[in-house]
């Protein structure tokens, strides 16, 4: 019965079969002329792609129900009359990257229902008058891409003269040098225009006249020097990046501008533009300019204040003046990176009641200090602060008093000092210790990477707050458990990458909630035993260390929740890979296992082999070789001990003098005469004594 149920199709399988049959029938009807398509064309339900096939003519036969046709990157030069039949369903035609020079009226008439036409990267500058007239037949066109066609300003004006249905226009990467008055009067329904990557030097008054619905405009990467009368009140997004702007100003008075995003990055601004009319502005990018101050009257730098005394001083808010940010109540994102700012602009920021993200990266900030403040510091709503790439040495604790909602703080690439010693280069007790993060009760992400930190000292962190901590790139860093005091039950991610730390310089406390730990790029010979406490650890990076094996006891204490381990770049011992089997049995992923190597010990410093290779036979040979060497060494030691014992016995024996005398007499009897007269005389003198002893011979 069960077998029959498994074989017989159910209602769901029957419905799926009918759906597949219907889809197959539909595809057959749609691509009924697919046999006439050029070889290599791909057909779909509503789309045909003949991209990059080297075609020289427009395909004569195409599916009737086709809505999208891709003929990009071929060799079409001319769209001739009667090149195709009517295509009432074709909505999108892509002809980019061809060699088009001519668009005839007869060719575009069958395509009069087109809504999107891509003509980028062609040669439509050669017959622009007739081409522009042909485009007027496309009464339903919504998107037109004429980028990279070598069009100058006059040619572009011809192409957009009478395209009243157009919503989106791309004229980027051409040769435009100016925009004349009334350039876009023939396209009053435009919503976005892309004029980037041209050579525009001048925009005449009224160039965008009549564009009451324009929402997005990009003039990036041109040669504009001044925008003195910005009047596009309906615009939402304006990109003026990578020009040579020294001035940006709106019309006088507040005329209800709707601008929300303004990009003025990569220009030559020396002062912050007066943007009081842009009350709906939410994102402002002023990065990569020449801004040296944001205050209308920058206070003089304090004299006689050393680097250790400046931490406790606070900003003076007495100088307010006419602040450029006084009327930006909706600004949420401000980018001031890569300028020349040398002070934290408390006065400027105090007027931005909705600011959430601030970047002052890669400026000239040294010490977050200023003269003694007036009473009543403002509370700023910042949640993210980027201060990387400055020269900050001291970080004030009062900053968290005015930034009570701060969650993300990046202090990477600075010269931060968290403690000082009596003399440089000498060990000793801390002379003065800062605890700048003790009041950061809402701080979740902190980066202290590449600050040349040698240690954190007794730096106190706010309890149950910090989520991730980045201490990477601090060569020579040493940690003791007290350095991370307060983070035992909050820290989820910890990075100690590239610190060159040895095992004796890494002492972590029990981090009970740790999920991600990066220990790569160090000199660790074994794992910290306190990892047993991190039962929630998911990811462990151990690349580029000095590990010969992984401690299975430490790994076993992780509670079986470890998901992945990175191990490449360690000198693992090929004959002690039991830990690798333990990882496999615990379903722990090793993504870089193919890149990991191990070493066989020998007299020449080791023989390397891929970790994934079967090492059974070689390890047996190395074990036998080690056993043979041990037996030889044992034999040598035994022989040495035997010789020493025999010598000791001979010295302590009472018969030793007799043995030595016997040895001398035996040696004398073995000598042979050598024609020495004196020796023979001595032998002759000895003979009478022997004769007297023998009476018979006498």
Automatic annotation (TrEMBL):
The chain crosses the membrane at residues 629-650. The keyword Nucleus does not apply. It comes from the Eukaryota. It comes from Phascolarctos cinereus. InterPro entries: Dev_Immune_Receptor, Leu-rich_rpt, Leu-rich_rpt_4, Leu-rich_rpt_typical-subtyp, LRR_dom_sf. Residues 1-29 form the signal peptide. Residues 292-324, 673-698 are annotated as: Disordered. It holds the Pfam family LRR_8. Keywords: Leucine-rich repeat, Membrane, Repeat, Signal, Transmembrane, Transmembrane helix. The lineage of its organism: Eukaryota, Metazoa, Chordata, Craniata, Vertebrata. This is Leucine-rich repeat-containing protein 32-like isoform X1. The gene is LOC110201011.
């Amino acid at each position: 019965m069960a077998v029959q149920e498994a074989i017989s199709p159910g209602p769901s399988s029957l419905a799926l079969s009918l759906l597949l049959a219907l889809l197959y029938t539909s595809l057959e009807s749609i691509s009924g002329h697919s046999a006439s398509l050029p070889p290599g064309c791909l057909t779909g339900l509503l789309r045909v792609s003949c991209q990059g096939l080297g075609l020289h003519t427009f395909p004569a036969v195409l599916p009737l129900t086709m809505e999208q046709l891709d003929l990009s990157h071929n060799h079409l030069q001319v769209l001739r009359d009667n090149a195709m039949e009517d295509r009432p369903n074709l909505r999108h035609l892509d002809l980019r990257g061809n060699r088009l020079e001519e668009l005839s009226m007869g060719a575009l008439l069958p395509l009069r229902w087109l809504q999107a036409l891509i003509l980028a990267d062609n040669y439509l500058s050669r017959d622009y008058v007739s081409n522009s007239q042909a485009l007027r037949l496309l009464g339903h066109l919504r998107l037109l891409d004429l980028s990279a066609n070598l069009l100058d300003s006059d040619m572009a004006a011809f192409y957009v003269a009478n395209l009243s249905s157009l919503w989106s226009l791309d004229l980027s990467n051409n040769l435009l040098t100016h925009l004349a008055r009334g350039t876009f009067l023939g396209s009053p329904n435009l919503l976005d225009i892309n004029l980037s990557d041209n050579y525009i030097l001048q925009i005449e008054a009224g160039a965008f006249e009549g564009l009451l619905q324009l929402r997005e405009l990009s003039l990036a990467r041109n040669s504009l020097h001044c925008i003195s009368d910005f009047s596009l009140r309906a615009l939402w997004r304006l990109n003026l990046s990578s020009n040579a702007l020294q001035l940006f100003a709106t019309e006088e008075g507040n005329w209800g501008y709707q601008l929300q995003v303004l990009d003025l990055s990569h220009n030559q601004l020396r002062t912050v533009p007066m943007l009081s009319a842009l009350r709906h502005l939410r994102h402002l990018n002023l990065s990569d300019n020449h801004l040296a101050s944001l205050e209308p009257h920058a206070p003089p730098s304090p004299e006689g204040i050393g680097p250790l005394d400046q931490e406790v001083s606070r900003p003076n808010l007495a100088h307010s003046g006419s602040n450029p940010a006084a009327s930006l109540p909706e600004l949420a994102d401000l980018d001031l990176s890569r300028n020349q700012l040398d002070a934290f602009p408390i006065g400027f920021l105090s007027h931005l009641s909705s600011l959430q993200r601030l970047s002052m990266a890669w400026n000239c900030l040294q010490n977050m200090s200023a003269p003694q403040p007036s009473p009543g510091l403002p509370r700023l709503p910042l949640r993210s602060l980027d201060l990387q790439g400055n020269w900050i040495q001291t970080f004030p604790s009062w900053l968290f008093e005015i930034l009570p909602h701060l969650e993300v703080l990046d202090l990477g690439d600075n010269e931060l000092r968290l403690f000082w010693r009596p003399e440089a280069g000498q060990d000793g007790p801390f002379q003065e210790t800062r605890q700048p993060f003790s009041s950061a009760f809402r701080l979740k992400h902190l980066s202290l990477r590449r600050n040349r930190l040698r240690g954190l000292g007794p730096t106190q962190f706010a309890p149950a707050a910090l989520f991730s901590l980045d201490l990477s790139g601090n060569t020579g860093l040493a940690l003791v458990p007290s350095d991370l005091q307060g983070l035992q039950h909050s820290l989820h991610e910890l990075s100690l990458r590239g610190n060159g730390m040895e095992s004796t310089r890494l002492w972590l406390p029990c981090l009970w909630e740790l999920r991600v730990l990066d220990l790569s790029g160090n000199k660790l010979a074994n794992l910290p035993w306190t990892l047993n406490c991190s039962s929630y650890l998911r990811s462990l990076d151990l690349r580029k260390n000095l590990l010969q094996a992984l401690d299975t006891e430490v790994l076993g204490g992780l509670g079986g929740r470890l998901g992945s381990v990175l191990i490449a770049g360690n000198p693992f011992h090929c004959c002690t890979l039991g830990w690798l089997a333990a990882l496999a049995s615990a379903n722990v992923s090793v993504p870089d296992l193919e890149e990991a190597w191990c070493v066989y010990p020998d007299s020449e410093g080791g023989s390397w082999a891929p970790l994934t290779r079967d090492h059974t036979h070689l390890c047996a040979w190395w074990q036998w070789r080690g056993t043979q060497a041990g037996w030889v060494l044992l034999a040598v030691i035994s022989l040495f001990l035997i010789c020493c014992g025999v010598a000791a016995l001979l010295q302590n024996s009472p018969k030793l003098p007799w043995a030595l005398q016997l040895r001398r007499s035996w040696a004398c009897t073995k000598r042979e005469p050598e024609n020495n007269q004196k020796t023979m005389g001595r032998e002759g003198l000895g003979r009478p004594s022997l004769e007297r002893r023998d009476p018979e011979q006498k």
